[in-house]
Amino acid sequence: MKDKPVDLDHHRGMAAQKATDLRRLLTEVAANQEALRVAQDQLEAQLIAAPATTWEEVADKVRYLLSVLGETPSGQDPRRQTLIKAVLDDFSRLSRDPGR
């Protein structure tokens, strides 16, 4: 019995190595997507947990919802993308404006 493990990746052909790399990458992507779903669930639970106490908190909730909408097929419509950008720009401008 050998003390050093055999690295099987060096013994595979190029096609087999590419297939192995692709499977590994797909597994990694799936794990990252699951971690993202968990993080989104936690964020949404926090956003739902209590009503906003300031307009800035309301704006944060709306920013999140607009980012979710923007990723949907409906949100990809160029007019909706323009509207989303305009609202986000308004939030940024008004949050900086001390005379609101």
Describe the protein's architecture and organization:
- This protein has 100 residues and is mainly α.
- It folds into 2 domains: 42 residues; 50 residues, no CATH class.
- Helix content is 71%, strand content 0%.
- It is built from 3 helices and no strands.
- The longest helix is centred in the first third of the chain and has 36 residues.
- It is elongated, with a radius of gyration of 23 Å.
- The mean pLDDT is 88.
Comma- or semicolon-separated keywords:
71% helix; elongated; mainly alpha; single chain; 2 domains; 100 residues
* Average pLDDT reading: 88
Give the % helix: over 70%
Question: What kind of sheet is the major sheet?
Answer: none
Order of helices and strands: HHH
Low-confidence stretches: none
Rg of Cα set: 23 Å
Task: Please tally the helical runs, counting DSSP H or I stretches of 4 or more residues.
Answer: 3
Would you count the extended β strands for me? Answer: 0
**Approximate strand percentage:** under 5%
Class from secondary-structure proportions: mainly alpha
Count of domain modules: 2
Shape: elongated
Oligomer kind: single chain
First-to-last CA distance: 77 Å
